[in-house]
Amino acid sequence: MRTSLNVPEDVLDAFDETWETQGLDSRSRAVREAMQEYIERHTRLEEIEGDAVAAVAFDYEHTLVIEELHTVQHDFEEVISTTQHMHRGDWCLETVFCSGPASRVRELVYQLRDFDAVGRVNVMFLRPV
Question: Where does the Transcription factor NikR nickel binding C-terminal domain lie (predicted)?
């Protein structure tokens, strides 16, 4: 199946450089692998049930979203145990360490992903409790 995508040139250049360096046969193959990894990562997020321990790392443009992020963190204080924050100019990197119902961790991840000023949200389940 053929498809087309709108991708910023700098992202496409970095993607091409990466798959070529890794010795893959084609961009199509690299895209298929990236899609499979995406599916696996998000399927894992959906499959975890019961209590879980997780690290949620995300980056964001500070001035555009900080108040809203503080509100979200307060809304999820029953699962957020610890936060770690780092500034790099107007961008921030934050990690929240969570413990509690996996369903609440999922809700937190989904809310963070809803913000346009949040670049990436990565989740690592450390272990189901």
Answer: 53-124
Residues 38 and 54 in one domain: no
Residues 117 and 75 in one domain: yes
- Helix (H) / strand (E) element for 29: namely helix 27-47
Rg of the chain (C-alpha set): 17
> Under DSSP, is residue 106 helix (H, G, I), strand (E, B) or coil?
helix
**Which tokens in the block code for residue 16?**
């091409």
Both tokens of residue 15? 């993607």
Which domain, by its residues, includes 55? Answer: 50-128
Q: What percent of the chain has pLDDT over 70?
A: 97
Q: Give the CATH number of the domain where residue 69 resides.
A: 3.30.70.1150
- pLDDT greater than 90 at residue 98: yes
Best CA proximity match to 45, nearest among 57, 35, 54, 36: 54
Same domain, 71 and 123: yes
pTM of the model: 0.72
Report yes or no: 112 and 56 within 8 Å, Cβ to Cβ: yes
